[in-house]
Write a structure and sequence with these properties.
- The protein is an alpha/beta fold and about 400 residues long.
- The chain folds into 2 domains: about 190 residues, Alpha-beta prism (UDP-n-acetylglucosamine1-carboxyvinyl-transferase, Chain); about 180 residues, Enolpyruvate transferase domain (UDP-n-acetylglucosamine1-carboxyvinyl-transferase, Chain), CATH 3.65.10.10.
- It has 12 helices and 23 strands.
Length: about 400
Amino acid sequence: MIIESVEEVRGRIDAPPSKSYTHRAFFTGFISGEMEVKNPLRCDDTEATIEVLRMLGAKISWGGIEYVNPHPGRLSARKSGATARFSLGVSSQILGTTLVNGSSQLRRRPMGALLNALRELGVEIRDSQGYLPVIVKGKKIKKNSVKIDASISSQFVSSLLFLGAKKGEFVIEVKNLVSKGYVDMTIEVLKEAGAKISMEEDRIYVEQGPKGGKFHIPGDYSSASFFLVAGAIFGKVKVENLRKDFQPDARIVDILEAFGAKVRRDSSFVEVMQGDLHGGEVDCRNHPDLFPILAVLGAYSKGTTVLKAPHLRYKESDRIRSMVIELRKMGADIKELRDGVLIQGGRTLRGGILDSHGDHRIAMALSIAALGAKGRSMIIDERCVEKSYPQFFRDLRRIAYDG
């Protein structure tokens, strides 16, 4: 994909539906037996979830789940970490042997803490030293509590929430939780479907599982963040279909204001205008998907920016190292830290041949960075954006070249 530099960006787009909510709505439908899903996101990752649940016995379409006759299966989560991890939780209670596998990229993402928790519950697991492929021998789980180290991923906790919600009475003791907002999101969807769940400090109590119902998928702040940052750096962008809620990545609005952008918010949209940007320090542990685009924001802002999120080394790529390598190619003053990056911003960036590292969020962040770089940029393996935002380049053209 060739990205030409522009004088400014200007326009409006609709935020795509949330990938995170889409996964959770369909898995909630699977354990409750039915669920109507309104406005789901269709992308590579959510297609993986649809296919996995179909293989586990759901009568499923993009409109939701009609009924479930659970049985074991041979599952491919493709490149979707959420699909793989949630599948491990739900398949552990399906009698018989289920294989959970995925792409070569997904097989490099750690699953060990979740597998250890399932073993603690008495589930028989055969794995590849803490990675996929994993064979799960499902059983009726008798234990009512489990401990989990969630320092690598909050998805481990959500997986156990689906297990506990299916069981009906369950307690999860959580240590070192990162990205708590995504656990809150899982609890929200389960409660919307009738589950009774409460969270007190480091314990989650499941009293009753979901009964089904209807869930409307909101617009996605994770995807919108790329265009909101583009507006802050290069002009003015309005993103519709963004409700005020507690999505972890809704934090982007406050961060942009703190960096000096001009922001206008309403109940259904966020508009960001160019401002006198200055760097700051951001802890990304609870909103890790913002890290790549915040690195771009830091490169274009005056002064020093420090971004921290050590668990980003275990995403689709090592996102810390990936952004350091690619922004350095563009002439940014960026230093890799053990747990993040330090950026001295304000330099003029230059175009070049930029590698997405097969990571959708790296590809999108570099595309925004290229808009203000001198000369032309080429993004290698740009199709990885189909993992979460298939219409990204269409929307990029709308605000950068068609406005």
